[in-house]
Amino acid sequence: YNVNSIRSRLHLILPWLEKHSPHVLCMQETKVEDSKFPVDVFLERGYHVSFRGRKQYNGVAIASFRKPDDVCYGLPDGESPDDDRLLYVRFGDLFVLNTYVPQGRDRDSEHFTYKLNWFARLGQFIRRTWSSTDRLIWCGDLNVAPEAIDVYDPKRLLGHVCFNPDVWSAYEQVCAWGLKDVFRKHHPGEEKQYTFYDYRANTKARGLGWRIDHILAADPLYRLSRSCDIDLEPRQAERPSDHTVLYAEFYEE
Description:
Strand order of the largest sheet: 4-5-6-7-11-8
Structural class: alpha+beta
Radius of gyration: 17 Å
Distance between the termini: 26 Å
Strand content: 25-35%
């Protein structure tokens, strides 16, 4: 769930947790420095929470019923670690990787180059850290709509920093390691399923959405996935994020 400022969305996050009781909730764009992260409200509801962020920008967090065995931040490759964009936790042999991929701003800007490089760095990090036989979930706001059915107007939007051949290629190279789209497993070819609606021009009511938030899994978990759905209720509430909740269920082995 890209919360777009966690302190501004607690009125949505906390009821959602109480209603659905997910084992793990990954959040992006928390937009708060660590000293002001609302830890207590999660602890009061039985959740451990790991987080890294800064004022007004980026930020990632993972809330979980079980305390993680390990918590790691950032890309450890000698470049900017971007530890407020990447967080992963381990629960036994289960790994949950939560990322907030750079948006890219404009295709002719250094920000878009940075985005493509970020995907390449992420792919290298995954290949160095895990085997495709590991129980790995990768999720978050990935800022890519992989297919034409993932945007409301593919002809007009083609070329956008989240919908163009360069970003598709960068994303696919990460997935080629062995990560599969859990939502598309359960909703193949299904159109008008979106996780993001811009705040401008009443886009939610007009159905002008994008599917840019994703849950992907390596094969040991992908084959155990029971469902994956988009919950539009948080986007329709008062003072919503521009994103909504994407969630998945997995069988226990």
